[in-house]
Design a protein that fits this description.
By secondary structure, this protein is an all-alpha fold. It has a single domain, classed as MFS general substrate transporter like domains (Growth Hormone, Chain: A, Up-down Bundle). It has helices at 2-13, 16-45, 50-58, 60-78, 81-99, 104-131, 135-171, 178-194, 196-200, 225-248, 252-260, 264-292, 294-304, 306-314, 318-333, 336-346, 352-382, 384-406. It is globular, with a radius of gyration of 21 Å. Residues 207-217 and 411-429 have low confidence and may be disordered.
Length: 429
């Protein structure tokens, strides 16, 4: 099939650095999906309620707000590889500490360390891929990377779902008790440590894609009000989406546990197959972008996810909710690589890590900070329905703003051109 042939040809053309980064991504995705499935359940098993769980999901945002921008600026000057190595090691140490802790001070401390490690990976992943890919293969690399994350997430979710069941059978305790979930943390942390190996084999990379021979010299922050406006238009809608996601996505484990009384094994299977569905949808997004343009594809898929989000909020039918969960995840996430590459191509090369760091800072404030805290409060007052409704409003407003800001940047199908030249800030109507 032409679709499969195009992907195979493109993947074969990826540089050695790109292939090693994809391996790094896959290993970290296994660890992250295992952590993501069990973290809230683990805290719940220790006796903590939604309020504290929301705080723990939001605590890493403090770290990102403090160090995110300096990390991006330093990486733009000195290269990305060493920062990624440090981030992976810190993330692994934090996971080990969280898995062996049960008191609040220790959980706070290791969550802060984990926030620092994760911020390094979040800030530098996208600009690293921009630097190690050509413009022609870039959207495909981002799509393959996200699909690989989802596919590895399938393995991680299965691992995190079944491992507590196996350990529970051996120890004769409930699967959602502390000991089985604690072991999952330790196994997940080992994948973070292994992920360091492919990064160690990568050559150093600067924001301009050249081998690092000395610090980059150009100023990475916006230098004019025109560039400030462009940064604001890129970051504003993304920040709203992050806030909405923080109110909903980080609570999906508890949602299925509390609304439908699912055990960790069932939640793991549900999450695993959702990863596969989303991965397949992500692989299709470059083809949709070629036909309809990136802006129309981003806006169309995100708006199409809204009815399914509302079904999640208001339905108590398990089959309907499962279908809505799969379709919503696929539609909302398949345009992620398109939106990331779109924004990074609009700014100067030496601004890419800086833009990403600002995006991560705002995303952490929303998804990892304000969103979970506000959602935890709303859940204690009225359950999941009101919190998920707030997410719906955020997604709709963010998508419409993105279309308003960038409708004139739309790629004209078949023309091979796009409104303003990439990397050149201009006024958007």
């Amino acid at each position: 099939m032409p679709f499969i042939r195009d992907y195979l040809q493109t993947v074969r053309s990826f540089s050695p650095n790109a292939r090693r980064f994809l391996t790094f991504t896959a290993l970290n995705a296994v660890a992250w999906s295992a952590f993501n499935l069990t973290f809230n359940l683990y805290l719940n098993s220790l006796g903590y309620g939604p309020g504290f769980i929301g705080q723990m999901n939001g605590f890493p945002a403090i770290v990102v707000l403090v160090v995110g921008l300096p990390i991006g600026m330093l990486a733009d000057r000195y290269g990305y590889r060493r920062f990624l190595i440090a981030g992976s090691i810190l993330t692994a140490l934090a996971a080990l500490g969280q898995g062996l802790s049960s008191v609040r001070p220790a959980l706070y401390a290791f969550t802060l360390i984990g926030g620092l490690g994760a911020s390094l990976s979040w800030v530098l992943g996208a600009p690293m891929m921009m630097a190690i890919s050509t413009k022609e293969e870039r959207v495909f690399l981002f799509s393959v990377q996200q699909a690989l994350m989802m596919g590895s997430g399938f393995l991680g979710s299965l691992l995190a779902g079944f491992l507590p069941e196996v350990v529970a059978g051996i120890l004769h305790v409930p699967p959602a008790s502390t000991a089985p979930l604690r072991l999952t943390f330790l196994v997940g942390a080992s994948f973070n440590l292994i992920a360091v190996l492919p990064i160690l084999r990568m050559s150093q990379v600067h924001g301009d894609g050249a081998a690092a021979k000395g610090p980059a010299r150009r100023w990475p922050l916006p230098k004019s009000w025109q560039e400030v406006g462009l940064f604001a238009r890129i970051l504003g809608p993304a920040a709203l989406v992050s806030f909405g996601a923080g109110a909903m996505v980080v609570f999906f484990q508890l949602f299925f546990r509390l609304r439908f009384s699912l055990n960790p094994g069932s939640i793991g299977i549900l999450f695993a197959f959702s990863s596969i569905v989303t991965a397949l949808a992500t692989l299709v997004s470059p083809l949709l972008a070629k036909r309809f343009g990136r802006v129309r594809t981003i806006v169309g898929t995100q708006l199409a996810s809204i009815p399914f989000l509302l079904l999640l909020a208001y339905s108590f039918s398990f089959p309907a909710v499962v279908v809505a969960y799969y379709v919503r995840n696929a539609l909302m996430n398949m345009s992620g690589p398109l939106q990331t590459t779109f924004g990074l191509e609009l700014v100067r090369d030496e601004q890419r890590a800086t833009l990403t760091s600002l995006s991560v800072m705002l995303g952490s404030l929303g998804r990892g900070g304000l969103g979970p805290i506000v959602s935890g409060y709303l859940q204690e007052k009225s359950g999941f329905t009101l919190a998920f409704t707030m997410t719906t409003v955020c997604y709709v407003v963010a998508t419409l703003l993105f279309f308003l800001f960038f409708r004139n940047y739309e790629r004209r199908p078949g023309s091979g051109t796009e409104g303003p030249a990439a990397g050149r800030p201009v006024t958007v109507g």
